[in-house]
Structure formats: C-alpha cells, structure tokens
Design a protein that fits this description.
This protein has 148 residues and is mainly β. 3% of the residues lie in helices and 36% in strands.
Length: 148
C-alpha cells in the first residue's frame, strides 16, 4: 500500500451522497477522490429505525464517531450507546452493526484503516466480511422492516 503525496482539501460541496447496498443507508465518501489505500473516511446518515449491515473486516480497524444524535452499535454480543461526540474503536475480526432505534436521524463519521484489506494476488471473498446474513437486524429493531 502506498501513501498519498501532498494533501487534499475536501470541502462539503465536494461530497456526493449515495445509498449503500444492500441496506440503503446514505453515505458520503470523504477520501474516494484521493485514491487513499491506507485510510477510509465516510459520513453515514442513519434515518430513524434503520441499520447498516452486520459485518466484520479482514484487516481494517474502524473508528465510529457520532457527529449528530445518539449512536447505537452492536459489537459482538454487546449493544453500545454512543453519545454525540463519542466514539468506539472496533478491531477487524469483531462483528459489528451500526443501527438507529430512535425517531431522529443519526450522523456518524466512520474512519477505517487500511482501506484496501487485500494484498497483491489476494481476491475478495464476501464470506470474510459477511459470514452470516448481513441484513439481519438487531433485537432493538424488532418488528421494523429495513431496508424500506
């Protein structure tokens, strides 16, 4: 993996919002245009009563930081409540799922490294990230249908 040269200034107007599949959570990738191989940084906008995929990583550590609202994340068998401006660092092999069981939107900044989890000649294997059904919802969202 190669570090970038110089620097990149990223302004809010540079961001484009997309929906992540399969859970349809809006996100904006801060570092997409930089082609960084070492670091990933994305804003995630969780609507009321929503969840991202239940997943883990091969090599990447992820730092989850709540910018707006009260965050909820399941890590392994635990459910954590993260206050505004609070964060959680999660190691690669831990199963995790960010969700929103409130009636208000929650905005997270999620930073991970390394961005590229595979070396030369290694191929992507979906089961390494999603060893179980990634669309299952946490018990806190019982009765909720997500994605819409």
């Amino acid at each position: 993996m190669k570090a970038i040269e110089g620097y990149f200034l990223i302004k809010p107007e540079d961001l484009s919002w997309k929906e992540a599949n399969p859970m349809k959570i809006p996100y904006a990738d801060f570092l997409e245009r930089t082609k960084s191989e070492l670091l990933g940084a994305r804003l995630w906008r969780f609507p009321a009563k929503s969840a991202n995929t239940l997943h883990k990583h091969v090599k990447a550590e992820e730092f989850y930081f709540v910018l707006e609202g009260v965050g909820r994340i399941r890590v392994g068998e635990e459910t954590l409540t993260v206050p505004k401006h609070g964060g959680v660092l999660v190691g690669p092999q831990m199963m995790r799922q960010v969700f929103n069981d409130t009636d208000a939107e929650v905005l997270w900044l999620i930073i991970g490294a390394p961005e590229n989890e595979f070396g030369p000649g290694e191929s992507f294997d979906i089961k390494l990230f999603w060893p179980v059904d990634p669309k299952q919802l946490p018990k806190e969202l019982g009765g909720v249908v997500w994605p819409p």
